[in-house]
Amino acid sequence: MTFVLSLDAMGGDYAPQIVIEGAVLALANADFSYLVFGDERVIRPILANYPKYQHAFHLVHTTEVITNDMKVAMAIRGLRTSSMRLSIEAVAKGDAAAVISAGNTGAYMALSKLQLKTLEGIDRPAIARAMPTLKGRSIVMDLGANIECTSQDLVQFAIMGHVFGQRLLEKERPSIGLLNVGTEDTKGNMIVQDAAQSLKNIPHINFYGFVEGDDITAGTTDIIITDGFTGNVALKTLEGAAKLIQKMLQDSLKQSWRGKLGYLVAKPAFQQFKNYIDPRLYNGAIFLGLKGIAVKSHGGTDAVGFANAIRVAASLAADAASGQIASDMENLLTKEKFAL
Amino acid sequence: MTFVLSLDAMGGDYAPQIVIEGAVLALANADFSYLVFGDERVIRPILANYPKYQHAFHLVHTTEVITNDMKVAMAIRGLRTSSMRLSIEAVAKGDAAAVISAGNTGAYMALSKLQLKTLEGIDRPAIARAMPTLKGRSIVMDLGANIECTSQDLVQFAIMGHVFGQRLLEKERPSIGLLNVGTEDTKGNMIVQDAAQSLKNIPHINFYGFVEGDDITAGTTDIIITDGFTGNVALKTLEGAAKLIQKMLQDSLKQSWRGKLGYLVAKPAFQQFKNYIDPRLYNGAIFLGLKGIAVKSHGGTDAVGFANAIRVAASLAADAASGQIASDMENLLTKEKFAL
């Protein structure tokens, strides 16, 4: 099945360079093409390096760019033809199956809600991502879309996570944990306590209870629900931990001849390990709760990372049943609205 | 200098076994003794395994125990002779130089405030700990004492962190970062934005600005300030990440004969690496803002970890200038109260 992906070429710390390079990388063995929004004066020279792939890029010129430090209100109302806005609009209009941006998360979410609309029953979409765990992988959400959340928001995230997890993890009843500072019922603030109370009363979902920070990587539950502030900090803390630990390993090996020799002998294994913990390979988070597919790339990633975000969007776009996720979510949310 | 440390023998998941074993471990080359509070019927048989060290343990029998799922109000008002309460009281009375507990964090903090009193100018003490970073080590606080914080709380944490960091890190003006979901001024909620505004206006401290989750391990700033919910999740996420990454490394090495051979050759280096990332070696967090020294051990640690928490308390107790920290904090806080 061939389809079109929409790219915000100007979003992220190293745009448009890594956007174009990542898009080229993602084209290997793929059958999609791109609608690319951005400043053609900088994009064309980059594209010129890949004559073999130029046919897959359809450029739409625009000079307005939403920067990282721009307030959301300005990004929405001030810039009518920003590369981010136009790239989302392409999905809203049906010109593309999904949009990918590495730009300003707040603006991206706000514009996506505006253009793609939220699902029936959803107040606030959330950012979700699969993460590696000791048991396989788990979905963590919200990763930064909603800095402050009510207990009702967390309950909605759990319902969205349930439906998304059913498909992504291929489990009938994925287990759902609510991130907290302890597992006892008395722990945490009123928001997580109220959310836990509500989640216990929803028969459709498999609510496990509270989980803690180390349960994210332990894979204690299939899905971990938290507010966007905590989720964002946890995600970046994980990334930082991976860098620090890799450095500690290098330092340990360099300190002795046995360490150095062992490294040489086991080099392919170390390469494999490096791939395991490479955050670029996990790049690409999904905006859940929208009527269209929008994928957020890490702002600081490189071409390899951006290519992975594109692959995430492509796999969702290629999933014929992706419409099913939306309607399942709407059904469950509408049902729970009356039940709660 | 010889002194007495007070131990809550009944706090934590594996108490009193690991408390006594840890206390024995920490005694090696040390010149302190213990006041131990707990059920002597279970403690005596454990102590009997260490006849050489029995002289260093002075047991005070009590049967009341504060459990992990006990509400703080019950722990304070319901139990008048809990091992935790009595162990803190020993410091308040001057019978011990510091207290160590692996028990219920909320109850421990509440009882410590009650018994040891908070410093002049401090509304809410915070939990602080040094963590390894790419550049050395940094102090992170609050790690779970204050689940909900005002911007004023965060400012006070920063001032306490400044004074504590001066001594612990031996830096005149340790840099202070405020944990957020992005580094731009517009990021985050009102609480962190207001706190950042206030911190910019305090001349005595070296405020860096907002930092993100990965800055914790990057060592971007000497001190990282956050609320107790986010700090607790970040700390445990780091611990979980270390376990996952270690597992990924093992899996990578086991997959090939080169990996297995390289592991054998470099075994001492791997042992060193394992020590680097062993969370037990970083166990022992300090309650900052009290008039006495109280150290919190991870509830799930073992004897090696508990011994490290004891060493943290002992090093603070042995520091002749530790009274200076308290008076420096009080001076700065009182000054800033008028300035803000």
How would you describe this structure to a colleague?
2 copies of one chain form a homodimer. The first copy, chain A, has 340 residues and is of the alpha/beta class. Chain A has 2 domains: 1-117 and 289-321, Isopropylmalate Dehydrogenase, CATH 3.40.718.10; 123-287, Isopropylmalate Dehydrogenase. Chain A is built from 13 helices and 11 strands. Chain A has helices spanning 17-26, 40-47, 72-78, 83-92, 105-116, 151-168, 190-200, 213-218, 228-254, 257-265, 267-277, 303-318, 322-339; strands at residues 3-8, 32-38, 57-61, 98-101, 126-133, 136-141, 175-179, 206-211, 223-225, 285-288, 293-296. Chain A has an 11-stranded mixed beta sheet, with helices on both faces. In chain A, helix 4 packs parallel to helix 5. The longest helix of chain A has 27 residues, at 228-254. The first copy, chain A, is globular. The model of chain A has no long low-confidence stretch (mean pLDDT 92). Chains A and B meet through helix 8, helix 9, helix 10 and helix 11 of A and helix 8, helix 9, helix 10 and helix 11 of B.
Features:
homodimer, 340 residues, Isopropylmalate Dehydrogenase, 13 helices, 17% strand, 11 strands, 48% helix
What's the topology here?
Two copies of one chain form a homodimer.
Chain A: E1 3-8, H1 17-26, E2 32-38, H2 40-47, E3 57-61, H3 72-78, H4 83-92, E4 98-101, H5 105-116, E5 126-133, E6 136-141, H6 151-168, E7 175-179, H7 190-200, E8 206-211, H8 213-218, E9 223-225, H9 228-254, H10 257-265, H11 267-277, E10 285-288, E11 293-296, H12 303-318, H13 322-339
Parallel strand pairs in A: 1-2, 1-4, 2-3, 4-11, 6-9, 7-8, 7-9
Antiparallel strand pairs in A: 5-6, 5-10, 10-11
